[in-house]
Design goal:
Elements lengths: L1 H27 L5 H10 L7 H11 L6 H13 L13 H36 L4 H15 L2 H15 L18 H11 L1 H27 L2 H8 L4 H23 L1 H6 L2 H6 L5 H11 L2 H29 L7
Amino acid sequence: MRKYIIKRLLISVVILFFVAFAIYALMRCLPTSYLESIARQKSLQPNSKSFEEWMEQLSAIYSMDKGIVPGFFSWLGNVLQGNFGDSWKWTVPVVEKFKDTVWVSFVMGAIAFVLELIIAIPLGVIAATKQYSKVDSLISIIALAGISLPTFFFASLLKLVFSVKLGWFDLFGLVGRNHETLDAMGKLLDKAHHLVLPIVTLVVVSIGGLMRYTRTNMLEVLNADYIRTARAKGLPERKVIYHHAFRNTLIPLVTIIGGSLPGLFSGALITETLYAINGIGFASYHSLISGDIPFSMFYLVFLAVLTLVGNLISDILYAVVDPRVRIA
């Protein structure tokens, strides 16, 4: 196992290098650049240099005057020294802006993901064990509704009912008007209160796919020969389902769970925008459309690292959930 992990990590480093280069090349080819906006603003100041002179100076500072390959290696050299640069859009160090926004998205995404697993997997198993029954039909309707609901529509509906009509939650923001007057526990509860509707939105629009996926895999396992043999031996139905069948259903679910790691840090752009939550999804979107190369590079490469780690975790978990899987 140790040799396998070391080998995968070395391969991941090579993959990450080429992924980072591809991302950098794409960033350099964006039709917009925040440097142009900065240079234009500075050129309009009294007794200032021209736009071209400012562009030349700023491009030299950020290695934008070099070609894509030299520019990439210049960026890579700074990264290896722990220097990720300053965000052009937010005018603060990239790491500082990332820390300020990522944890809100992570908490929101992690809670929504745990609730999604708690709700979707049991309902998928129940639907499979009661195939074609009224319970199966009801769960399938709920799953299809969750898959079909657009995020912006469902979020707007929640705000209309619970914010406008009932007045239980604020329409926007992460904190209330009296947030600064509260004690530490009060501030925490205030933020938790404002995250209820965004988390409900994420859970409802996400559980449908996992529910259907669990049901499909569970049905495939329940029709296997060894399940018929277990039933023929007189084992209790509960043990057949939850000990023999469900354990084999976990194998494809592990792939989804491991692949969900980047999603916990990538943020939910639409949800964060609709609820005016300054998370990493919201920040990364505005950085991308502004041509903020330092922040966009850090964010996208960070997601690439999480994707590689998630795939490795999935492969290792295969051996945990299924003793027949062994890594030589």
